[in-house]
Amino acid sequence: MNPSLKLGLVLIASFEIAFMQSIVANITIAALGLLYLLSKRVSLKKLLWLLLVPIIPVIGTWLSFYAHGTGDVFHSAWLLSTRIYAYIYLGGILTLTVSVEDLLGSLEQNCHIPTKFVYGTLGAFNFVPRVNQTVKQMKIAALMRGEVLHVWSPEIFFKSILVSLRWSDNLAQAMQSHGFSEYTKRSHYQTYSIPKWNWALAVILLICLQILAFGHFI
Amino acid sequence: MMNRTSSTKSTSLSYSLRDVAFIALTGIFCGAIFFGTTVSYNFLSAGLAAIGLGPFANDILLGLWMIAGPLAAMLTRKVGASTLGELLGSFVEMVLGGQWGAATLISGLIQGVGNGLGFAMAGYKHFDKLGLLLSTITGTIITFGWSMINEGYAKYNLGFLILLFVVRLISIGFFSGVLVYWINKLVEKSGILNRD
């Protein structure tokens, strides 16, 4: 399915889940997401990881509604803890099957997001490994002077801003010197289209979602 | 260091390629600092979960999650920078952090709009204490409203709800308010943004 359409569907579904009051609906969405991911041959290890990672927040949510809820506390506890899994497997549909390049490329061509946002973000993404390394370096450099940089220290953010400023300057200049222009029309080697069956499937899925949302399940 | 006067000369609505890359990079840095420093999050979360106070783990750290928005607003002084910063930050988080998926984009948007509203109320003229104070208040109210629906906070009893609200206000007030103010002071003192 086209990445932009997939993003749109997942966003609509995520938004509606927030209002759904049905445990059955949450479990159905999570199960459908899981089935989709299995059919796309996402590794079992990753799927199992998705099941385990949120276990602490899930238990935390369940217990806090049980202890501090009003009304039907069991319903609230199960509703809100299964909702987390609905979000997670729904989110996985997007993040585990679509690459950043495809998503941004499709957003540019199908949703006409301005190129500076698409390529500016894409350019910044390529710095992720260096960002992680730089944060480590800053902390170690501070330790050598006997300073510990905490998450609440303004210095660590200030240094990050210095680096971001330099890199964004360099990145923009490098892109412009390679012919990037914010205003001219681009041609594309990789094109993204939305075939008719995509639209049809999207409509069917949305209808199913409304049945889940308004179907008065428990 | 290149001066950045071009971004102050142009209208505050238009973003250049460099601004976008800058905001995205700052967002990535904030994410890296968050993930690289708070190993204790899971311990905190587990400890609080065991005594039925699970949601406090989120509320205590929410201000830190939201820091990219007000930071972008203070540094670029542009209309909508807070929303853009938070949205780009959550996009980065969705792709890298992973497990919360597209729901991150929605909460990112809500957090960004919540913070941005404060700067908007000040007419985009107060990128100072007043702007940050207003953005703390609007940010807390709007994200809390979303939590009432999305995380089911509406189903908690009133005492618990008030406590959650106060904790969130303090967290956002400190991280997205006071800390951003300190950072901005360092930036202004260094003169790297070449603003008048």
From TrEMBL, chain A:
The keyword Disulfide bond does not apply. InterPro entries: ABC/ECF_trnsptr_transmembrane. One of its GO terms (cellular component) is plasma membrane. It is found in: Membrane. It comes from the Bacteria. Keywords: Membrane, Transmembrane, Transmembrane helix. It is a multi-pass membrane protein. The chain crosses the membrane at residues 12-38, 47-66, 86-104, 197-217. Pfam families: CbiQ. This is ABC transporter. It comes from Companilactobacillus versmoldensis DSM 14857 = KCTC 3814.
From TrEMBL, chain B:
InterPro entries: ABC_thiamin-permease_prd. The keyword RNA-binding does not apply. The keyword Membrane applies. Keywords: Membrane, Transmembrane, Transmembrane helix. The chain crosses the membrane at residues 20-44, 56-75, 87-110, 130-149, 161-183. Signal peptide: none annotated. This is Thiamin ABC transporter subunit. It comes from Companilactobacillus versmoldensis DSM 14857 = KCTC 3814.
